[in-house]
Amino acid sequence: MKHQRFDEIAAKYPQLRIAVVGDFCLDRYLEIDPACREVSIETGLEVYNVINVRSQLGAAGTILNNLVALGVGELTPVGFCGDDGEGYELRAALKGKASVRADHFLQTIERRTFTYCKPIMVEPGKPPRELNRLDSKNWSPTPERVQNALRESLRTVAGSTDAIILMDQVDIPETGVVTANLLESVRAETAIHPNLLMIGDSRRSLKGWPPVCLKMNQSELQTLTGRTVLSIDDVMNTAGSLSRSHGRPVFITLAEQGIVGAEPSGVVEHFAAPALRGEIDIVGAGDAVTANLTAALAAGATLREALELAMAAASIVIHQLGTTGTARADDIRALLFPRP
After folding, report:
1. How many structural domains does the chain have?
2. CATH value at residue 312
3. Which of 46, 75, 204, 233 is most buried, by the most CB atoms less than 10 A from its CB?
């Protein structure tokens, strides 16, 4: 990609309207100083003293953060949080972003706020080291009243956005935002708005999803197709076949080997990942890919251009340690076009 072409694509980001529909969570980081260790008098167990607490949007919120970093003009989150302290923090994080419209983000007493609590050891001269996570999730089906509200929000935003991202993050089916009922609404909206860009990502399975663009990793591709795909050629062939049968583009992330994209027309591209530049933390890389693919395609990028931008963004994110990072348009420009 040439510098001028990058600028043409990035210049369109402020005019874009993108909705992110899915499981928003709160990423809460507990920074622990091992030099402040104590032993509890009551239990005799070692005490980890937290010297700093920081919170940010996670899961679907990480995608939103990356779209904010790119400078997308209007962002609409569609999801829910609980009527609890974590929900207060999550909504505050949403409202703190000027480009975000939170009209369709529901707060309800019928759900807990999805939270990843991440204790991290912070030692001078060493990369942050994450300990066992403390997660808060919903273990019961999403109530019908909440599902109906989300479906109505989807119908509303489908008629007023340039692209929709669907993010299914929860491990237990029907406990999050992307339920079977919501997917039926997505199917209906694809018929009403056949040219609307929609990209879906699910950590459980994309099997049976409506005709939207599918984004997954290599393991998820094998689960979806039931085929063992080992080489890049295998992935390209499988992705091409899947895209033709599904009728929409398909994207397969391959970690250090890059990404493959396929279109129903038969075009299949592979783009390698940039070389590593030091210590890495892969958390958030896939979400950065999703955000950048969507923004680039909505701005008129070709398949190969979108893959290149997504890989550059992922490379920037994985080099941000101890946090779920983001990639700004200026960061991507600097990586793609380094100054002499």
Report:
1. 1
2. 3.40.1190.20
3. 75
